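Please fill in the sequence for the structure shown.

STRUCTURE ENCODING:
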């Protein structure tokens, strides 16, 4: 489902010494599909889904929705990843308890602003996804009589192919069996040997050792660009720790050419290009040039050169320009091409990003599964809340 063009780049070695197959134990976890479908059946008539979550608990489904769901669903989705009162008021003004469902997700059940959001929407029907431990969010669900789903024993950024991503997906009409099937296929494809995900991680690490400490990641697809936030999280939170790692600059192409190409080509030579696109689009549009405009000068040709152009080809030519310019400029550049965007490829691309991030973390010799630096700000903000009560 993903075709890799490594542009003659090869890793210096074919293995990661600190990697263990146990790193992929989470890929064997199976969501409770029956429970997901049973619970979703209670809310089939809702018009609005209000998703209250943070980080990996929201970014994967955001990619599913923006990349595919909104094209096929008649529902509206509101992503509540903030306690901004203006936005909360806007959501409550647009939705009513009668036609809406609040889905609140927190693995630990102690994400303070998720609990605040749930309380602010207390007049709405809610479903809670959290662990089955004794935590604040579970206590809230029990007090209010909300339906609950169990958050599997997997970190938020790796949870998108479990209840966390699948439950909101099925509520919005996506085929979650296909999402799951695509993810399982990718886990299988990328777990053994010098597979392309591992090869990519090793190449990125080799280039990092040579001073290429940033990935410029333009995505030439409106649908795939929906993964931008998730990519940023899964790479940064998995890899960047202990003073090590690599940062990512992710943008939608071809618009990225107008605000990042100058940096990519003209700035410090420390960026790896990771170009991502799709092989085929679902729809097609053609350019028709009126006869009286065909001879109008355009660059070193004329407007008539565009007559009959399919926009799918135009998109490919936009990518071709930047990708080949990078190769001509001796800038490390790799291309990923996904067959098409559907439920199966959503799952496949998500799983690829999971395993790529883990391989990359192990190549940098850091633990892929912790995020120690994110706790400090949480402690400070909750201390401020306690002092507010005083």
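FILLED IN BY: designer on duty
SEQUENCE:
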């Amino acid at each position: 489902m993903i075709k890799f063009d490594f542009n003659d780049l090869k890793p210096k070695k074919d293995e990661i010494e600190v990697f263990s197959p146990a790193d992929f134990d989470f890929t064997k976890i199976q969501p409770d599909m029956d429970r997901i479908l049973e619970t979703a059946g209670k809310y089939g008539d809702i018009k609005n889904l209000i998703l209250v979550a943070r980080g990996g608990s929201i970014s994967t489904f955001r990619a599913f929705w923006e990349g595919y769901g909104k094209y096929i669903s008649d529902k509206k989705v509101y992503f509540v990843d903030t306690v901004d009162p203006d936005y909360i008021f806007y959501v409550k003004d647009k939705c009513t308890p009668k036609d809406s469902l609040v889905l609140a997700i927190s693995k630990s059940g102690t994400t303070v602003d998720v609990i605040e959001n749930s309380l602010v929407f207390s007049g709405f029907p809610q479903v809670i996804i959290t662990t089955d431990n004794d935590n604040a969010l579970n206590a809230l669900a029990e007090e209010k009589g909300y339906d609950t789903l169990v958050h599997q024993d997997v970190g938020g950024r790796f949870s998108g192919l479990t209840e966390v991503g699948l439950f909101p997906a099925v509520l919005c009409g996506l085929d979650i069996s296909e999402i799951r099937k695509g993810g399982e296929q990718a886990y299988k494809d990328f777990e053994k040997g010098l597979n392309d995900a591992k090869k990519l991680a090793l190449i990125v690490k080799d280039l990092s050792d040579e001073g290429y400490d940033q990935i410029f990641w333009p995505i030439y697809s409106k649908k795939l660009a929906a993964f931008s936030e998730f990519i940023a999280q899964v790479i940064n939170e998995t890899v960047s720790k202990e003073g090590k790692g690599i940062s990512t600059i992710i943008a939608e192409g071809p618009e990225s050419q107008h605000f990042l190409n100058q940096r990519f080509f003209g700035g410090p030579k420390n960026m790896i290009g990771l170009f991502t696109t799709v092989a085929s689009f679902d729809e097609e549009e053609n350019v028709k040039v009126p006869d009286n405009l065909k001879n109008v000068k355009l660059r070193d040709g004329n407007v008539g050169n565009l007559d009959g152009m399919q926009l799918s080809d135009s998109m490919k030519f936009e990518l071709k320009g930047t990708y080949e310019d990078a190769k001509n400029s001796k800038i490390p550049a790799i291309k990923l091409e996904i067959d098409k965007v559907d439920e199966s490829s959503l799952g496949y691309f998500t799983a690829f990003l999971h395993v790529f991030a883990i391989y990359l973390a192990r190549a940098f010799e850091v633990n892929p599964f912790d995020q120690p630096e994110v706790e400090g700000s949480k402690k400070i903000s909750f201390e401020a809340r306690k002092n507010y009560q005083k």
